From TrEMBL:
Keywords: Membrane, Transmembrane, Transmembrane helix
Species classification: Bacteria, Pseudomonadati, Pseudomonadota, Alphaproteobacteria, Hyphomicrobiales
Record-linked Pfam families: DUF2243 (PF10002)
Segments passing through the bilayer: 12-36, 56-79, 91-118, 130-152, 172-190
Keyword Membrane among record annotations: yes
Protein's recorded name: DUF2243 domain-containing protein
Superkingdom of this protein's organism: Bacteria
Length: 267
């Protein structure tokens, strides 16, 4: 009975590794390409007039991060659910293999599905040969992680080996969980030392109400888009992001997990 439960736990840990690797691939994409390099938004190449609005682009990027948080949460739950699998010898290698494969699957799925099939963005938008950047990304990040995952699968062998304890399993699980949680925190926070926040108000609120909301929150408007509903705001030491939400803000870059990329954006 104990061996059967350990095997079930080992399978859950393997699934957890794959899901967490997939989520980390998404965080890596969002942090590096959306926030740091700012090479594209999620919907950069969508031609619809409504989608070309910077507010919609930023909101789509924020919702992408929410999806990654949900996937990462699923992976962490699977990791906890499969904790009995730590009794299985070799579980550390299988979890690491699944994580590397999950990361690789994200890279290939992103490029093939979103870049080439749906064509909603490319690795780098606005360059003469975007295909070369797509392929280069896969060569640098996709293929090495795939090769690492397959190599670890071979090292781990076929299936669980009962009768021993995966001494490194808990350490690997803790390291993996911590790494993914840290990635999520980096994706959600604005750049270090930035005192301003980007605030996206609900459509139709209008500039007068948006500016009044900033004043009520003890903030100062630094920049506004033509609609007056996307603002760069200095909240200062006494400013209240919650007051902005109460008065119609959808996203506040310095405090909301949805809007981590707002404060990084060059607007």
């Amino acid at each position: 009975m104990a061996t059967h439960m350990a095997r079930d736990g080992g399978r859950s840990l393997t699934r957890a590794g794959f899901v967490l690797g997939f989520a980390f691939g998404g965080f890596f994409d969002g942090i590096l390409l959306h926030q740091v390099l700012q090479w594209h938004h999620l919907l950069s190449l969508v031609d619809a007039e409504a989608v070309r609005d910077l507010r919609v682009q930023i909101l789509a990027d924020g919702l992408f991060h929410v999806l990654m948080y949900a996937i990462a949460s699923l992976g962490l739950w699977l990791l906890w659910r499969g904790r009995r699998g730590f009794e299985d010898r070799g579980v550390d290698l299988r979890v690491l293999a699944a994580t590397a494969l999950g990361f690789a699957v994200w890279q290939f799925a992103d490029v093939v599905l979103f870049h080439w099939v749906l064509q909603i963005h490319r690795i780098r938008v606005g360059v003469p040969n975007p295909l070369l950047w797509d392929i280069g990304w896969l060569v640098v990040f996709g293929l090495p992680s795939l090769a690492l995952g397959l190599w670890l699968v071979r090292r781990a062998g076929n299936g669980p080996t009962p009768g021993g304890h995966g001494r490194r399993g808990p350490a690997v699980a803790a390291l993996l969980a911590g790494f993914v949680v840290l990635s999520g925190l980096v994706a959600m926070l604005p750049p270090p030392g930035v005192s301003t926040a980007m605030v996206l108000f609900r459509p139709g609120l209008g500039a007068p109400a948006a500016f009044a909301a900033v004043a009520q929150a003890d903030g100062r408007v630094l920049w506004s888009d033509p609609s007056g509903e996307l603002l760069a705001v200095d909240l200062g030491p006494n400013g209240s992001a919650w007051e902005l939400y109460r008065r119609g803000a959808l996203l506040v870059g310095s405090s909301a997990p949805l809007a981590g990329c707002l404060a990084w954006s060059r607007v």
